[in-house]
Design goal:
Blueprint: E1 2-11, E2 16-18, H1 19-25, H2 30-37, E3 41-43, H3 50-65, E4 74-78, H4 89-97, E5 103-107, H5 113-126, E6 132-140, H6 150-153, E7 158-168, E8 173-179, E9 187-188, E10 209-210, H7 212-234, E11 241-246, H8 251-261, H9 272-275, H10 282-292, E12 301-308, E13 312-319
Parallel strand pairs: 4-5, 4-6, 11-12
Antiparallel strand pairs: 1-7, 2-3, 6-7, 8-13, 9-10, 12-13
Helix pairs in contact: 3-4, 7-8
The protein binds coenzyme A.
Coenzyme A binds next to helix 2, helix 6 and helix 7.
Amino acid sequence: MAIRILGTGSYLPEKVVTNDELAQVMDTSDEWISSRTGIRSRHISIADTSTTMAVKAAKKALEDGGVKPEELDHIFVATLSGDHATPSTSCEVQKEIGAVNAVCMDLNAACSGFVYALNTAMAYAKAGMGRKMLLIGVETLSKIMDWSDRSTCVLFGDGAGSVVVEADPSRKIYIDAGSDGMKGDVLTCEERHLNNLLVKDDSPMQQVQMDGQEVFKFAVRIIPKSVNKILDAAGVSKDEIKYYILHQANRRIIEAAARRLKEPIEKFPMNVDHCANTSSATIPILLDEVHRNGMLKAGDKIILSGFGGGLTWGSVYLEW
Ligand code: COA
């Protein structure tokens, strides 16, 4: 049993902040940011929350897939920036769209979150536990950034992407996923201190902190390794792959991965220039853009691949 994607949707907050606008409030420049990352602008939430963005993306995916909310048996939301610890973002989405029959769960694998959500949906389909499932990657990273740290805050943005999937025995899907908690300290966010009757710790919560160069090296090494692994598992040659939809963190990472895979850069669609890094949302947002631009037809073979905090990584081979 595999799954197939019935529909996609995405949502980006209205407010666009360019590199030049950032340069007015911090010591940076369009030249520094764009030459190192390919990022020119990002969307930043003013009125939206993770829940409102997730709901808007989900409604579009359901409409695109011709699926009614009550047909859903599961909602999986990948996020590290949900609005509350509880209720989960997936339960909030359920309430807003009226998916009364869905079992709802959030999962956090940072920027690999959407691939992990696909992995979970595939496992549920295989186990006969899931038939029609809604998957969402959503982040309001602007609320957890350290806006005084120019080396990190310029890289991220807000947004949501969603797909609705159906269990389908006729399709092939292969997944590779991995984690390396031993190296987790190169990308961290919001240390939660003990603060109880017995222990007092009023030190401020930490926001996103990153060793950019270490993350860069990790990404460039792990993407080709993971992609080659699922190509082998699927018994598919690179020539047969139409697109590689990679996590949109940095144009240079994607170009390096393409070189290492010996694949033309044209097979790597990108939107990092106008979305920046929206963590678990980048892959479904880009997939939605590619689909809505008419770049995919039935049977096309594609690979999705993500990497990020944890450290975590994952790749999916699927047939459109
Ligand atoms: N504007 C201007 N200068 C900046 C800056 C900014 N926004 N941020 C950092 N700098 C400065 C630093 O202070 C440093 O100055 P110094 O040399 O005087 O100390 C210098 O730029 C560092 O530049 P460089 O060595 O060229 O940085 P880099 O090539 O390593 O690029 C990143 C930095 C963050 C863009 C790069 O490491 C990267 O993209 N890493 C991956 C991060 C990522 O994608 N994470 C998410 C993964 S899910």
